[in-house]
Amino acid sequence: MGRTKESDxxxxxxxxxxxxxxxxxxxxxxxxxxxxxxxLPWTAAARVRSVTEQGxxxxxxxxxxxxxxxxxERFGSRVTLWSEQNRIHxxxxxGPFHYLESNWTFREVEGGSEVHFDVDFEFRNRILQGAAGLxxxxxxxxxxxxxxxxxxxxxxxxxxxxx
Length: 163
Fold this sequence. Notes:
The protein contains two helices and seven strands. The chain is α+β, with helices and mostly antiparallel strands. The chain has a seven-stranded antiparallel β-sheet with strand order 1-7-6-5-4-3-2, covered by helices on one side. It starts with 11 loop residues before the first strand and ends in an 8-residue tail after the last helix.
């Protein structure tokens, strides 16, 4: 973890939502990186390079292509999936960021699950970083809402599995 921040201006975002879906359903949805382009804003493409079992967890290597206005960037991530703990950690491998880390945790609560998401990143490009800072919190809220909508489509649709 010994990462040092070069400035205090790096965007970070954290939020917790209680949703009417099981922790397992929400974990499965977030872990399904290959389907992100179907519903995540600004995600133009996704490719899972590999998934490796490592004892109590899996490590997925994945590439995402993020497209926003004139910017189109590919970046690689290492996604660590702890299915027993309903926890997902993503760290950046290569691309336009100086660093990127995100965490998802899913916990059963009465009537559904509590979903916690946090992300912290810094672009290498100062212009991109400045632009990201302007709309970052709104963008992250849109991302979380996109996962909520996807859960609604998958789990509330006629013929879907009961919760």
